[in-house]
Amino acid sequence: MAKNTSNGEHQITTKPPPTPSPLRNSKFFQSNMRILVTGGAGFIGSHLVDKLMENEKNEVIVADNYFTGSKDNLKKWIGHPRFELIRHDVTEPLLIEVDKIYHLACPASPIFYKHNPVKTIKTNVIGTLNMLGLAKRVGARILLTSTSEVYGDPLEHPQTESYWEMLTQ
């Protein structure tokens, strides 16, 4: 922002930096937490694990049955003292203590839906109920993810950034 001074020169002033969002102090951004990532061996889950492991105070636990994910996606963390990998199907209860749950476990491709629809439904329904039950039991925060498939077939291909507006009408 520029201001004119009395001698005709321009004086440059800068805005103060924005105030950090109060969300930065929320439980989702705190350190020193035990975090469960279901479906953490999948594409999105493994990248989330990479970001979570950047915080040197967090312990990350991945539960995955490798139906669509791969242990190779996590090989750089295997053996790390703050990382634990559990071969587990979320359709079965998981009895651990955690502070946060990122629930990404679900076969997210029409190929898998057609190949094994019962497994897909069980993972979505029973798996989510199990994770909600775990969150309630231990007082953890939970983030439930999904795919665009829940909205059905889109009316346009590819979807623009504003396509979501059509879903609300």
TrEMBL record:
What is the required cofactor set for this protein? NAD(+)
Q: Which GO terms describe its molecular function?
A: NAD+ binding; UDP-glucuronate decarboxylase activity
Example GO biological process:
UDP-D-xylose biosynthetic process
Q: Which residues form the NAD(P)-binding domain?
A: 36-162
Entry-linked InterPro entries: NAD(P)-bd_dom, NAD(P)-bd_dom_sf, UXS-like
| Catalytic reaction(s) noted | UDP-alpha-D-glucuronate + H(+) = UDP-alpha-D-xylose + CO2
Give the subcellular location.
Golgi apparatus membrane; Golgi apparatus, Golgi stack membrane
* Pathway listed: Nucleotide-sugar biosynthesis; UDP-alpha-D-xylose biosynthesis; UDP-alpha-D-xylose from UDP-alpha-D-glucuronate: step 1/1
- Where does the UniProt entry say this protein principally localizes? Golgi
Major enzyme class:
lyase
EC annotation from Swiss-Prot or TrEMBL? 4.1.1.35
Checking Gene3D superfamilies in the record gives: NAD(P)-binding Rossmann-like Domain
- Superkingdom, according to UniProt? Eukaryota
**Which residue windows does the record flag with biased composition (Polar residues)?**
1-14
**SUPFAM superfamilies under this entry?**
NAD(P)-binding Rossmann-fold domains
The UniProt keyword set, sorted, is:
Decarboxylase, Glycoprotein, Golgi apparatus, Lyase, Membrane, NAD, Signal-anchor, Transmembrane, Transmembrane helix
**Membrane-topology annotation of the record:** Single-pass type II membrane protein
Q: Where is this region: Disordered?
A: 1-23
* GO CC annotations on file: Golgi cisterna membrane; Golgi membrane
Database matches in PANTHER family: UDP-GLUCURONATE DECARBOXYLASE, UDP-GLUCURONIC ACID DECARBOXYLASE-RELATED
Question: What family does this belong to?
Answer: Belongs to the NAD(P)-dependent epimerase/dehydratase family. UDP-glucuronic acid decarboxylase subfamily.
This chain's function reads: Catalyzes the NAD-dependent decarboxylation of UDP-glucuronic acid to UDP-xylose. Necessary for the biosynthesis of the core tetrasaccharide in glycosaminoglycan biosynthesis.
Q: What's the name of the protein?
A: UDP-glucuronic acid decarboxylase 1
Origin organism of this chain? Vitis vinifera
